[in-house]
């Protein structure tokens, strides 16, 4: 158990509810900043050294809190934004505790885990618990859209850090994460030539047909044994049934197990751009936005430490490699040992049945807190 008194799962759930009932869609910086305000006030009251980085490009602020100490810090980072729009609480996903499950938008991904990080740092400072290293806590506004504004502050905080802890949701069986796939996104736009679909069909060049051919090529790049997947969605194109469509487009998601595979996919999809000389022109923008998180011996050692702490807190902590990306991808890629998936157990990230197993709040939070206290 950590030296810090974390409190019971019931007590944690009571405060976590206030976070969940404060809706924070990524696209509403005012709403996200409202929750940042609450966290900032609580951390200021216990003496954290605070830096608030103003939001930009339509996203909220990033809060950085530091505890006293010397040497390379331990960084813990969680995002406050969710995929859920305003009004979700009042309509499809009201706060509800149903037996062992607590429901609400964003509770699993990842308000419970971000609350773990905030609560641990607040209580370490409030209770004046001495940690082996200083702690840097980041609460960020835009992870759900790829961390376009918070990536740089995360990487700055992690540069030279001893370790990074990411309390994203636990996986199946309560697993934490020691590796993640890299993630990339493209936007493809196809320009054709419009014509009357009956009287002048031969004069048109269908952007939709050209896009359909490219979609099949992109789909064929999937290599499941090698860990590469591609997905095209959404797609758009055309105006009316009787007009040969001059415009079409799509978004492309790809996941890769390592950087060479990502570079290969980037090269192949960018090579699809150009003019075919017959009226079709293709534009491609994008690339890899989260590098792969590869399990290293240092990450394995950090996991072994966490598993031992978890055992003392009464549960097993398996590990997994996960296909989805997180901010841990960034920190692992710059060579800092990173352990991810340290949040609460549950299920339903981005789904209407999203929930946590609330009785696991205290033991899971205790493990994160003890890691913050004892990493040497």
Can you walk through the features of this model?
This protein is an alpha+beta fold. It has two domains: 9-179 and 293-374, Aminopeptidase; 182-290, 2-Layer Sandwich (Alpha-Beta Plaits). It has nine helices and 17 strands. It has helices at residues 9-20, 29-45, 107-126, 151-158, 207-219, 259-270, 297-312, 328-333, 361-374; strands at residues 49-53, 62-66, 74-79, 96-98, 101-103, 135-140, 163-165, 176-180, 182-191, 229-237, 247-256, 274-275, 281-290, 319-322, 338-339, 346-347, 355-357. One of its GO terms (molecular function) is metal ion binding.
What's this entry about, in short?
The chain has about 375 residues and is α+β, with helices and mostly antiparallel strands. It contains 9 helices and 17 strands.
Question: Could you give the topology of this structure?
Answer:
Elements: H1 9-20, H2 29-45, E1 49-53, E2 62-66, E3 74-79, E4 96-98, E5 101-103, H3 107-126, E6 135-140, H4 151-158, E7 163-165, E8 176-180, E9 182-191, H5 207-219, E10 229-237, E11 247-256, H6 259-270, E12 274-275, E13 281-290, H7 297-312, E14 319-322, H8 328-333, E15 338-339, E16 346-347, E17 355-357, H9 361-374
Parallel strand pairs: 3-6, 3-7, 7-15, 8-14
Antiparallel strand pairs: 1-2, 2-6, 4-5, 5-17, 9-11, 9-13, 10-11, 12-13, 16-17
Helix pairs in contact: 3-9, 7-9
């Amino acid at each position: 158990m950590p030296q810090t008194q974390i409190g019971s799962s019931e007590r944690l759930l009571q405060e976590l509810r206030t976070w969940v009932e404060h809706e924070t869609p990524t696209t509403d910086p005012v709403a996200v900043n409202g929750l940042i305000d609450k966290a900032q006030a609580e951390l200021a009251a216990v003496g954290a050294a605070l830096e608030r980085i103003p939001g930009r490009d339509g996203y909220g602020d990033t809060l950085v809190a530091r505890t006293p100490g010397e040497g390379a810090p331990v960084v813990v980072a969680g995002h406050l934004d969710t995929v859920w729009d305003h009004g979700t609480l009042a309509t499809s996903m009201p706060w509800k505790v149903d037996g062992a499950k607590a429901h609400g938008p964003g509770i699993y991904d990842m308000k419970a885990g971000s609350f773990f990080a905030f609560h641990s740092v607040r209580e370490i400072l409030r209770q004046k618990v001495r940690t082996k290293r200083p702690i840097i806590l980041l609460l960020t506004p835009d992870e759900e859209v790829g961390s376009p504004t918070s990536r740089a502050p995360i990487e700055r905080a992690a540069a030279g850090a001893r370790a990074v802890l990411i309390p994203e949701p636990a996986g199946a069986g309560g697993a934490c994460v020691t590796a993640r796939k890299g993630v990339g996104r493209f936007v493809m736009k196809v320009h054709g030539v419009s014509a009357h679909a009956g009287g002048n069909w031969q004069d048109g060049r269908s952007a939709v047909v050209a896009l359909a051919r490219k979609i099949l090529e992109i789909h064929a790049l999937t290599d499941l044994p090698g860990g590469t997947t591609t997905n095209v969605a959404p797609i758009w194109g055309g105006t009316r049934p009787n007009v040969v469509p001059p415009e079409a487009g799509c978004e492309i998601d790809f996941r890769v197990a390592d950087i060479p595979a990502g570079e290969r996919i980037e090269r192949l999809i960018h090579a699809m751009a150009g003019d075919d000389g017959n009226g079709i022109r293709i534009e491609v923008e994008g690339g890899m936005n989260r590098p792969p998180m590869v399990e290293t011996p240092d990450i394995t050692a950090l996991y072994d430490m966490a598993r031992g702490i978890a055992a003392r807190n009464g549960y097993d902590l398996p590990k997994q490699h996960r296909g989805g990306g997180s901010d841990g991808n960034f920190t692992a890629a710059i060579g800092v040992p990173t352990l991810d998936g340290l949040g609460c157990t549950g299920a339903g990230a981005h789904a209407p049945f999203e929930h946590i197993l609330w009785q696991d709040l205290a033991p899971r939070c205790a493990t994160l807190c003890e890691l913050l206290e004892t990493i040497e």
